[in-house]
Specification:
With 306 residues, the protein is of the alpha/beta class. It is 45% helix and 18% strand. The strands form 2 sheets. An 8-stranded mixed sheet has the order 5-2-1-6-7-8-11-12, with helices on both faces. The longest helix has 22 residues, at 176-197. The structure holds NADPH dihydro-nicotinamide-adenine-dinucleotide phosphate (NDP) and ketopantoate (KPL). NADPH dihydro-nicotinamide-adenine-dinucleotide phosphate binds next to helix 1, helix 3 and strand 9. GO terms for molecular function: 2-dehydropantoate 2-reductase activity.
Length: 306
Amino acid sequence: MNSHWILGPGAIGRLLAHSLSPLADTTLIGRRALPERQTLTTPEGKQHVKRLIVLTVTKLASEPHKSPAYVHITTKAMAAEAALENLASAIPPSTPLVLWQNGFLAQPRINQTWTGPVLCATTTEGAYLTGDDGVVHAGRGHTYVGDLNNQHGELAETLAQALTQAGIAATAVDDIRQRLWQKLAVNAAINPLVALHGVRNGELRGDGYADRVVAVVKEVASIMFAEDIQPPNNGQGEEAWLALVWQVVESTANNKASMLQDVEAKRLTERGAILGPLIESAERHGLGIVVLKGLDDELAAVEARF
Ligand SMILES: NC(=O)C1=CN([C@@H]2O[C@H](COP(=O)(O)OP(=O)(O)OC[C@H]3O[C@@H](n4cnc5c(N)ncnc54)[C@H](OP(=O)(O)O)[C@@H]3O)[C@@H](O)[C@H]2O)C=CC1
Ligand SMILES: CC(C)(CO)C(=O)C(=O)O
């Protein structure tokens, strides 16, 4: 039986653990102890209580164990490398990793340094935590899995099948870099603005914000072009990006975006993984990005007060 280690017992980590554990050996790994008795609330509002195997990195590293078939890294983007470093001595360097982060920070770095296969997953599943023993699966979505160098198609296919069997609908793809950047574009257009102004996604449609969304998308679209990222839905340039952003704003109108939740909880945001690669790319390509830089500076100032 394939075994899955899930490093980072947060919303996505616990959703994966609840889903995979009936079908495969599954271990949830954190940096602090958590209750084994964990509750999942489904999108339909049903509650499932399960005893999951939950270990700390320290405990796992100090005990003999079988090597896992996959290590899923489900921390926030800025914590992924440090989390892997702590676990690395407990797994063979050939172990396949699966990176679930938004943005494009951890993926290229870990892909460059890890010896074994590095798969990336981009998901529209929605989940949030309710304390140390609960996770709410807020909305079902779809997950795409692939690797940045397109060398592990079979492994991605096997994983996609295992996830789908476990109820996390997934597809293996050969264009995961495109998909990660497309999601990053949407996150860059929505997350910083709603986080800075404390509003739900739908409020971006209002007079006070709509022009700012358009200004962000203009810069993002020029970066996507320079990075050779295809506009969504077979569309053309800026218009296609803007249409996608408005579509996501509409379908998530009532959401408090993840970055807003982080700001409200006084946690560091994923701005480095979302705005960081855009700013770095714009500088490399000599593109003007006053709007994106302004948002990044404003968010940095907010984070500095935490
Ligand atoms: N939630 C969602 O709906 C979605 C999330 N994503 C992406 O998935 C990723 C994870 O998000 P999410 O699950 O919401 O985040 P959470 O903040 O809920 O979970 C992150 C987890 O990582 C743990 N962690 C942090 N550092 C370490 C470490 N060094 N070792 C082990 N564990 C560590 C945290 O533990 P501790 O409690 O100790 O801090 C926490 O349990 C993010 O990149 C996010 O953008 C993508 C799509 C949807
Ligand atoms: C698409 C969006 C903005 C939905 O809220 C999201 O992915 C997030 O909150 O991080």
